[in-house]
Amino acid sequence: MFAAARQVIEAVATGTGREVASVTLACAEPSGDGVLAGYDVELASQQGPDERIRLFIDTATNPAAASEVGEAQNWTTVQNPVTREQVRVWRYPHDPALPALPATAFPDSARETAARFGAVGEGQLEMLAYRPGRRAVLRLAGPDGTLFFKVVRPGHAEPLHRIHEELGGGGVAVPRSRGWSEAGLVALERMPGLPADAHVPHTPEARLEFLGELQSLVASIGAAPVSRGARASLTTGLDWYLLRLHDLLPARRADIDGIAVSIRQALAEARPGPARTVHGDLHLGQIFVEPSARHGGGTSITGVVDIDTAGVGDLADDLGGLYAHAIVTALTHDLGGRAELRTATFELAELVRLAWGEFARTWAEPGGSGLVTDDPDLSIRSSAVALTHLLSHAFGAAVRGGVGLDALPDRILDFASALSKEPRR
User: Fold this and answer.
1) CA neighbours within 13 Å on the CB side: how many for 361?
2) How far is the C-alpha of 61 from the C-alpha of 97, rounded, in Å?
3) Higher-confidence residue: 61 or 247?
4) Distance of alpha carbon 149 from alpha carbon 147, whole angstroms
5) Closest CA to 1 of 393, 388, 398
6) What stretch of H or E contains 145?
C-alpha cells in the first residue's frame, strides 16, 4: 500500500535501541489525498524482550488536524523517502485526531472513564471497531451492566449525543446516550438483541417477515426530525477507490473501470429523490434483532446502532449499502464453506433489492405524516451506491487478505461486474 513504509518505520525506530524485525500491513483507508495505513511492527532488541506494536502512517498532504484537546503530542512527522514529503506517524492508541482514545483503550482508565458517566464495577474491555483518525468503539462489560464508548473527533461528540436524542425522541429504537465529553467521547447504553448479520432468517417466510420489519424501521428513521445532514454518499469517493484498486488488482482494471462507468452513468441519469432522514451506513451488522426459537430462525428487530452517520440524506445510500454489505457477507460465507448461511444471506439481499422501490412508499417526510411515493429512480441510485460499496469492499478485502479469503476480492468484483451489466430498473 505504501512502498516506503518500512523505511519510515525504521526512521522512527532510530535511537530507540530496537531494530525493525518485521512490518505487516494491517489496514488502510482514505485520508484526504492520501492513505492512512496501519502496520503491525515487530521490534527486536538485544537489551530486552521483543515488542509488537501497531504504527499508523498518514500520507495525506492535508491530514485531519491533530486535536488540541487531551494529552500531550504523541505523534511525529517523518520524511517520505520516495516523495520527500512529510508523513504523520503514531503508535496506537495515541491517535492525534482522537484524544479520548487512550482514556478508554486500557482497562483501568476505561473503568475510571465509565465511573464519570455513572457506571461502576469491574468489567471486561473489548475493542469492537477502530477507524484511525475517525472513530473507535469499545465495550466495557461487567456484572453490573455494559457500557459502550464511542470515541470520535472532539467536535463530533456533542452532535453524536444529540442525534441519539433526536432519533430516540422521534420513536427510533437506538442506544441511550449517557453523555459526552469535549475530548470526543460519547457513552452509550447497550442495545437489546444481537446483530442481524449473524441471525439471518433461514426460510422464505421468515425472510419476508424480516423485510416487513426492515421497512418499518426504515420508515421510523425517515419520519424522525433531525437537525443535521447525513454523511456524504460513498459515491463521492469513487475516484479514490479506483486509484487504489488499479494498484492492488491491476489484472482486474478493465472490470473495475467498467463498473465505474456504470456507476457514473446511473448517477448522471437518475433523478434525485426527496430528502429524508437516513441512517447513513445501514447494514445488517447495524440492525439488532431478537432471534426466535420457532422454525425458520425468524427474528424481531429491536433497534439500530452506529448512527454516527445519520441525518437528512438520500435513501439510496442506505439501501445500496445494505445490499452490498449483505452480498459480501454471503460471499464470505461461501468461501468459508457455510452454505446454509450463504444461501440465507444472499436470498435476503436479493429480496431487499427487489423491494427497493417499495421502500420509497414506506417513507414519511421528516417531521410530517404523509407518505413519500415520488422517487421513481430510487432503484437506479441504490444500484450505483451498491456498486460503489462493492468496490470499497473489494479494496478492503485486497488489503486485509486472510486465511481462505484470498479469492474474496475477485469474487466481489465478479459479482459487481455482473450487477453493473443488468438493465436498470
Assistant:
1) 6
2) 15
3) 247
4) 7
5) 398
6) strand 145-152
Query: How many residues appear in the chain?
Result: 425
Task: Give dist(CA 360, CA 54) in Å, integer.
Answer: 44
Do 421 and 262 touch, CB atoms closer than 8 A?
A: yes
For residue 366, name the pLDDT band (cuts at 50, 70, 90). Answer: low
Q: Reduced to 3 states, what is the DSSP secondary structure of residue 21?
A: strand
d(CA 300, CA 302): 6
C-alpha cell of residue 228: 443535521
Omega before residue 93 within 30° of 0, cis: yes
What are the grid coordinates assigned to 332, written together? Answer: 464470505
* Residue that has been written with the C-alpha cell 501497531 in this structure: 54
Q: Among 139-148, 240-249, 282-291, 293-302, which stretch is predicted with the lowest mean pLDDT?
A: 293-302
User: Of the given ranges (14-23, 71-80, 387-396), which has the lowest mean pLDDT?
Assistant: 71-80
- pTM of the full structure: 0.86
Average pLDDT, the chain: 89
The x, y and z cell numbers of residue 382, run together, are 441504490
d(CA 156, CA 147) in angstroms, rounded, equals 19
Four-CA torsion 265, 267, 269, 271, nearest 10 degrees? 170
Say yes or no to pLDDT of 84 above 70.
Answer: yes
Amino acid at 413: L
End-to-end CA gap in the chain: 37
- 195 or 365: which carries more pLDDT confidence? 195
Query: Strand order in 34-44's β-sheet?
Result: 19-31, 34-44, 51-58, 86-91, 75-79
Query: Phi then psi for 354, rounded to 5 degrees?
Result: -65, -25
What is the C-alpha to C-alpha distance for residues 158 and 184, in angstroms, rounded to an integer? Answer: 8
Q: Which three cell numbers stand for residue 66?
A: 491533530
Pairing, β 276-278 against β 185-189: unpaired
Mean pLDDT computed over 141-154: 89
